[in-house]
């Protein structure tokens, strides 16, 4: 009789184990599925984090409520192992015990990890938002500086000061690239770990920050090019002006010699002047490019009906119109005979 009673008790225990395991399997599958799903954030703010933590807390309470049932099933398995005589039944019960224990431990670990991940997500969001806020504040100030540069219609000295200022500013922009790269790195991590918001606010912030920085550095580069071009034109002009003044001094001596000490005819004098002009062009090519040849002037003056002999020496220097507003030309009349005046020369120039 004791043996029959023992068999009945074992049978009842096995039936109870089957019922409990059937219920647990359904619950285990459901909770494992919930814990395996990635956390979807609708918007990037603290209220969304609180909402996800509250949802996680509900799952945690559900897990804790089933802890008693899991412990009961594990104890029942241990009891059946003592009452089971066959090796196959022992193996089956042991496998059930190990599987249940493993899944239960895994669920507990996943629940804790999920809660910690949500909390960590909020810390990463805070760090990202703080870094982006500082970068955005700097970017706004930089955009205001770049919006109103003194790069056109300014004196030469002010242009040089602006050039120095914007070269320093350009270095600051390049240095800020480190901060922008840090923000991009943070966002890439959030995206890789599924910690971004479905409203794409974080993505939009990063995209806007990159686009604004790129536009800023392009604008600064354009401002620098404009300033450098203006300064180089002014320096080229000053250099050309110095060359011309030196040449005019030398030419004045030669003209005095041709006018007062040379007995050659007018054509020979013109040839002498053309030779001097050619030498000037060899010595100062940039300046000579803006000088009208004497032969051209002779044709121009002749077409006006004025005798060349009454206006023998005339040199006109022109500047290129590029970059200068308005273009200018310097007229140098050199009187050698008669009563030709500066106003008369300018009338034909």
TrEMBL record:
The keyword Disulfide bond does not apply. GO terms for cellular component: nuclear membrane. Its main location: nucleus. It is found in: Nucleus membrane. Keywords: Membrane, Nucleus, Phosphoprotein, Repeat. It comes from the Eukaryota. This is KASH domain-containing protein. It comes from Chiloscyllium punctatum (Brownbanded bambooshark).
């Amino acid at each position: 009789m004791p043996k029959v009673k023992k068999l009945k008790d074992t049978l009842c225990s096995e039936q109870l184990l089957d019922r409990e395991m059937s219920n647990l399997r359904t619950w285990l599958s459901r909770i494992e599925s919930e814990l395996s799903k990635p956390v979807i954030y609708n918007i990037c703010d603290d209220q969304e984090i609180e909402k996800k933590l509250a949802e996680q807390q509900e799952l945690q309470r559900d897990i804790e409520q089933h802890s008693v049932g899991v412990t009961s099933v594990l104890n029942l398995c241990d009891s059946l192992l003592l009452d089971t005589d066959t090796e196959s039944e022992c193996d089956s019960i042991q496998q059930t015990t190990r599987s249940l224990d493993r899944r239960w431990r895994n669920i507990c670990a996943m629940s804790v990890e999920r809660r910690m991940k949500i909390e960590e997500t909020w810390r990463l969001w805070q760090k990202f938002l703080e870094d982006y806020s500082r970068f955005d504040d700097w970017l706004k100030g930089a955009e205001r500086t770049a919006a109103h540069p003194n790069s056109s219609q300014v004196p030469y000295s002010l242009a040089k000061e602006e050039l120095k200022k914007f070269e320093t500013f350009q270095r600051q922009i390049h240095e800020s690239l480190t901060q922008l790269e840090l923000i991009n790195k943070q966002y890439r991590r959030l995206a890789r770990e599924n910690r971004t918001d479905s409203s794409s606010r974080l993505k939009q912030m990063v995209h806007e920050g990159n686009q604004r920085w790129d536009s800023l550095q392009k604008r600064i580069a354009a401002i620098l090019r404009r300033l450098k071009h203006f300064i180089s034109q002014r320096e080229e002009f000053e250099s050309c002006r110095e060359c011309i003044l030196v040449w005019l001094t030398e030419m004045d001596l030669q003209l005095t010699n041709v006018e007062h000490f040379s007995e050659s005819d007018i054509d020979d004098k013109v040839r002498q002047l053309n030779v001097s002009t050619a030498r000037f062009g060899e010595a100062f090519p940039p300046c000579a490019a803006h000088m009208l040849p004497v032969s051209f002037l002779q044709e121009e003056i002749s077409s006006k009906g004025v005798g060349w002999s009454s206006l023998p020496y005339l040199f006109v220097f022109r500047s290129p119109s590029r970059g200068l507003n308005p273009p200018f030309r310097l007229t140098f009349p050199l009187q050698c005979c008669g009563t030709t005046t500066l106003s008369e020369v300018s009338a034909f120039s």
